[in-house]
Structures are given as structure tokens and as C-alpha cells.
Amino acid sequence: MAVLSVFSAAAFAQTTVKGQLVDAETGEPLIGASVVVEGTSQGSVTDIDGNFTQKVGPNATLVFKYVGYKDLKTKVTQKKSSVDLGIIKMEPDAVMLNDVTITSSIAVSRKTPVAVSTVDPVFISERLGSQEFPEILKSTPGIYASKDNGGFGESRVTVRGFGQTNVGIMINGVPMNDMEWGGVYWSNWAGLSDVTRSMQVQRGLGASKVSSPSVGGSINVITNSIDAKQGGTLSYGIGNDGYNKVLFSLSSGLTKDGWAFSVLGAKTWGDGYVQGCEFDAYSWFVNISKRIGDNHSLSLTATGAPQTHNKRYDELTIEEWDKQKKINNGVGYRYNAAFGYDMNGNIMTGTSYNVYHKPQISLNHVWEIDRKSSLSSSLYLSIGDGYGYRGVGASYSKLYGATNGIPNTNYRKVDGTFDFGALMEDNAKSNNGSIAALAKNKNTHMWYGLLSTYSNQLNDNFNLQGGIDLRYYNGGHKAEVADLLGGAYVVDTDRASVPYKKDDIAWQNARLGVGDVVYRNFDSYIAQYGAFGQLEYTQDKLSVIVSGNVNAATNWRKDYFYADNEESPKKTKVGYGIKGGLNYNLDSHNNIFANIGYYSRTPYFSGGIFLNSQTSNEFNPNCKNEGVFSFELGYGYVSSLFSANLNLYRTTWNDRTIQKRLTVAQESSYVYLNGVNELHQGIELDFQFRPVRNLTINGMFSFGDWTMTKDGVLGYMYNQNGQAVDKNMMEVTPGSPEHAKLLMNTKDIKIGNSAQTTAALGLNYEAMKGLHIGVDGNFYGRNYSDYDIAGLITTGALNGDPVDVAQPWRIPSAFTFDANISYRFKFAGLDATWNANCNNLLNEQYITDATDNGAKTGGHGWKDATVFYGFGHTWSMSMKVRF
């Protein structure tokens, strides 16, 4: 853990020392490295060019520290008023890196044999603006980032065609992915960009040290701990559509007693680019660190982002989007089919409202046992509490904004907005209660975990690491009536599907009010325990790594709605993995690497272990471990002028379980598919060129071939309420002989909604000291819509006849350009930074996400697809002052 501080008492006979810290192998400047006067609390931090200036007393020793590099000491013996140490080269140190970041699984260039890209906080502050956090990665090879429906925090990211449910998202090495299904909601991490020290993407097998690795790679965010400077910051930002953000931070630096603390608070609010997608979000971060003697350090970190936001569910056809340019004040691609007003003119968005807070707390301990061994541990806790809205009532689908890409007309005003007032009037007139009301889908969880890694430098060549990964998760899932929308009561039609209440007609037809339980009420339980180990051999130019892991995951649930407080049996699946890789540095500029590995990954609680985790304790009899086999070859070239990386990869992913929805509606009938196979292979290139000192050119090109590879995939049918159905769509017992099945031929179908060809070119120019101007261009091509099966659900198909899935529509290619300006200057004697960003500078109209509806319409062209468009021209600017 880098020790950083800047507070200094007045001293006499001081010498001003300056220099530049660079990577010994690449010559690249090290930004944010600490420069500390040994034995004191004095220190500084390097700037964007790796330069530093530090005052020292007589015969002082400077200690240079940087995450992932060996500490370096230099004694200043000159007695001049100023000393220039020139260029100071620091050596990478993979062993130290794993320890100080608390098992955070960071890879080191030219040492760890994986494809890796790292983003520093300067890059984030200059380019992120008001974008979603994952979008900072859109110029990374193999990455596709989308705003999805356009709501705040609703963005998603894919790595080599693998969705983020199958990409390990971590904070300081601690997993963030939902324990039940692997998802990540970025709205729960809205403040993460403000506390990021570095962000690393490992594509493919990666170097993550957890007992249950991800399939597509990992995104690991390292946050601040002992901060670089004593002091704080104040910032304020504005942007399009009422975007506002105010932030403060305060840091103590490292005190003489070895304590340090950092706090941050922020609020972000706005109207949203998409119609009706207002948001109101807070974020907070606290870190308290303590060095205990020479061998121990503790760091307590807590962060969270309580937020509320509206989102947009409904994809529309391209023709319908074009119609919206002519009505509803010409909102066009900002249109939200569920946006409207009640009879009093109050804005409403139906089922699109979301509230959540998911703080994560971790206590990290590093014990330097002796010169060769160390133990790093992280004890963490995640607390989730919030809800989203869902429809309830005999005709709750009337709350939907659109069906099959066409805005619903039941409650539609001439200006295109949803007429909630008319719906509320119908509810009030109804003799059977509200035909459509709103329920809160409440989701809570308590998640405890321990990650601990022991490292031993056995000799000059061998390093051994081993550890444990323990997790326990308890989720609560309940739906309660929230708003009767003008009615006197509501009847929950799902009650007729409760087996043990099948003869209780009064209970089924009960008149329910606000707070009454509907649709579901169950607890989920997951206990996961595993171990991992790694042996690394290094000698001169060669580095070889062999690692393995094993884990067991036990799943069970307890139902309070569809069963009478009945707890399911416990089901345990055991997974394992082994991987190996080597890196060889041909010389000081060229290196090659290769890795290979196989994982047997346990299925998720939802969409895997249970036939329907929302409504039934029945296990999925066809559930298998997923098998992942991957290998990769890589080449790298580095110099102070030019660097490049080239990667070839191939990953097979077998025996997946997928929930395939039949429509894009919020609640839809669906099929659980078992035994899905996929192939992900491709080539990636990225480079950086610095022709002159003040100009940096970055670029990348990625070409993927991501397809499904199996025919005869088995699926089970469920209706929109999550109930198992027979071939006549009548409800039956899940897993019974009557339960409708479907066999699908999916071979050669393209993986959708992840551009398989991407390219980027970026320029960053220092026009004058402190003034940086950047322009970035991105290309997205060979992006396919998600395939459709709704029209394939026929009587013959449900009788066992295999059906062929058609190749989905290919989304048109797109180019986008972003621009940014950053200026660092003095303001009233304080350091200040002004940033301005313009995204989609040329206002390109392009499609980011689509669903092919050809199985219903009979065609597979642009008229058949339902789509979301990317945002048009957006802007933001901010001012930050450091004190």
C-alpha cells in the first residue's frame, strides 16, 4: 500500500529536489507516484508527466513508491538550494502488487501473461464527463459499452461478447456481481469514478485470485486509501438536460502516528436525456487507514450511492421512432412510451421507477510476516435495500408503454404521452377494483465475505500464493401494493397460481390495499466456499504462472407466498479451474505471452439451479456446470515513443442456462434454455504513439467472431407471471411431464448486442502547460440484434419438433466522436482544474441495442427489429479546486 503524505513543518536549510519518475521498461511517466522524505510526514506526488518537486533537509533520503513497482530510495547529499535528479526509473514488482492491494488481482505489463488495459484517474477525470462509468472503457479492445435503455445507471458493458453478468466486476478485488444471477447495476456505484485510483480490464482468463473466476474477464477498480495529499477538493459540474453534480472530499494524509483518513460526498441530479428519466443520486466514500509498526497495516473502506431514477423499458421499431420526431414536441429518440401525466398534471412513468442503496464495507489487513512472506485479507459486507415498480391487477399490462415496438394506444394522448389520468379514472369506476395498480418489487440482501491470500517468495525464482474465498448471501424478495392508481382495491391474479391455496377462493379474490403482499415473497440463500493457489516462476526474461481453484456453492430458498413457509432442500454444486501462462521478454522492447485454462463453473441461483427462482422451490433437473475452455496468444512492443499489443484468443463456453424472453415487455413469457454452447474468438490490437512530448495518439482495433454452436437446445416454457405452462399455455407444476418443452437449433447464430468489430483513435495534445485537448473517435460494426423465438412457439414445436432460429438482423455500423478540454491553473493560490466534454460531437444517429422480431413478423430486416438509439449530442463541464 503506497504511503503518501504532503504535510511538512517549517524546516531550515532546505533543498528543493526535482525529477521525473518513469517505468524502467517502457519509459512511460508514472502519474500519481508518491515521493516521501524518509522518517518524516513530508511528501509529494508526481504530476501527469511523472515530474515532482520536493523540499528536503540536509542528508535526507527520498523514498519513491508506486502501486505495482518496487520501492526506490535516493539519498540527497548535495547542499545546493536546488537539485535535479533527472529521470528516475522504477522497476515493476508483481509480487508486491498482489499484497498491497488486498488480493485485488492486478496484472503487470510484460510480466503477467494476460491481455490487460489500465485506466488512470487523470484519463477518467478528463474524458468521463457526465457519461456512465463503464463508458470510459469504450476505446478498449474487445469492449462494447451501451447506455441500454438510457436511464441513469442503466448502462452495460460486454467484454469479448460476454455480458457483464459473466464479467467479474470488482472493487479492490472484492466481487460486485450479484450473487443470485451475476448482474451489476451501475446506478448502485454512481460515485465510483470519484474515488478510483486505477481501473484495470483483464480480458480472457485474467489474473483474478478468487475461487470462482468469471468467463469473459474482469474489471477491477482500485479505490483511494492513504491519500496522496493532505487537504481536500470542492467541485461543481453542469451538463445538458439539467445535469448537476456537486462534490467535496477531505484527506488527512499520513500522520506521524501512521493514521490516514479520506472522506468524499457528492450529489448528482438531473432531468435525464430520455423523456421522464429524472434522477437524484448521492454518493459517499470513507477510508480510515492505519500503519501498525513496520509489518501491519489496516484499511477500512466504505462506499455507497443511494439513488432514485426512472428508466425506459420499451424498445420501438425504427418507423415508430421516426414518428416521434413529428409528435410530442419532436422528442424523437428521447421518447419514453411509459412517460405521461396523471389528471392533476403530475409526471408519472408507471413501472419505471427505481430506488436502491447498496453500500459495501471492507476491512483490509496486510501482514508482512517476514522478508519473504505476507498475508493479505479482506473481510467485507454488502448491504442492499430498495425496490422497483411492477404492475399488479387483472390487466396490469395496460401500464406498459409499448407492445412489439408499437406504443400502446389504450391510454395514449395525441401528443404521444401516456394518459395515466384516464387509467386512474377507469380504476375508480371499476366495480372489481383497480384493473392495473403498482407494486413495489422489494429486494434486500446481506452479503458477507472473506478473501485472504498468503504469499511466499520461496527463493529467487519461485513465488507461491494460496488463499480462501468465503461468501454467504441472504436475499429478501417481496412485492407489496404501492399505489392503487385511483382504485379502491386490487385483486392479485397470481394468487390463483398458489398450489396450497387452490381451494381458498376468498384468499385468491381478496381485496388488497397498499402494503399487502402480491406476486412473490421468498428468501434466497447462497453459501460459497473455495480455495485457490498459484505458483509463479521468474528468471531473467521468463515468467511462468500455474494456478488452480476449487469452490462449492450451496443454494436454497424459502417461500412464503407460493408455499406455506416452505424451505427447499439445499443443492450444492462443485466447480473447479486450472490455468497456466507464460510471458517471455525477448528484449527490452518485445515480449510474447500465452495462456490456457479450463473452468467448470457452478450455475447461478437464478436462471440455473431453480426452474423458476421467483415462484418455485423446484430444482432444474437439466442444470449442469458450465464448461469454459480458453487459450490466448499475445505480443507486445514497448518504447518511450511507441507501444503496441496484439492478442489472439479463442474461448468455448458450453452448457449455459439462459432465460430467453419472448417479448421486450417488462413482464414477458419466457423459455429457460439448457445446454447452450457458444464460441468467442477474435483478434485485438491497441497502440500508443508519442511523436512529440506534448502529443499522444492512442488507437485500437478489435475483430470478434462470437456465435452459438449447438442444435437441439432444450427449453422449458413459462408465462409472464413466471408460472410453468403446458403446450396450451395452461399452468402446470414446474418440471412435470406436462410442462411444455422446446427444442431449438441455434448453431451459427451470432451473439447479439455486442459490436463484434470495434475501432478507436484518440488524440491528446498539451497545447500549453496545464491545457490538454483531446479528441476520440469510435467505430462500432457487425453488431447484431438479439435473436427472436416468439414466433417459433407453435403447437408442433411444443410437441417436440425442433425449430430453427434465424440469423438476427445486423445493426448498421456507426462512428461517434467525443472531444474534451482540461485546464489546470492557479485560482486564489489554489490548484484548480476545469474540464469540458462534448460526447457524440457530430450528433450521430445510431442504434446501440436491438431485438430481432423476425420470428413474429416473418422478416429479419430493419422494419422488423425493435431498437434503442444511442444518445445524441451531449455536453458537460466542471470546476474542481484543491485546498
Please sum up the structure shown.
By secondary structure, the chain is mostly beta strands.
What does this structure look like?
This protein is mainly beta and 883 residues long. Helices cover 5% and strands 50% of the residues. It has eight helices and 52 strands. The chain has a 28-stranded mixed β-sheet that branches. A five-stranded mixed β-sheet has the order 8-13-14-11-12. The radius of gyration is 28 Å and the shape is globular.
Q: What characteristics describe this protein?
A:
single chain, 883 residues, mainly beta, 28-stranded mixed sheet, 5-stranded mixed sheet, 8 helices, 52 strands, 50% strand
- End-to-end distance: 24 Å
Proportion in β-strands? over 45%
Question: What is the 3D form?
Answer: globular
Number of helices: 8
Using DSSP, what is the number of strands?
Answer: 52
What gyration radius follows from the Cα positions, in whole Å? 28 Å
Summed over residues and divided by their number, the pLDDT gives a mean of 89
- What class, by secondary structure content? mainly beta
Low-confidence stretches: 1-12, 94-104
* Helix proportion: under 10%
Biggest sheet overview: 28 strands, mixed
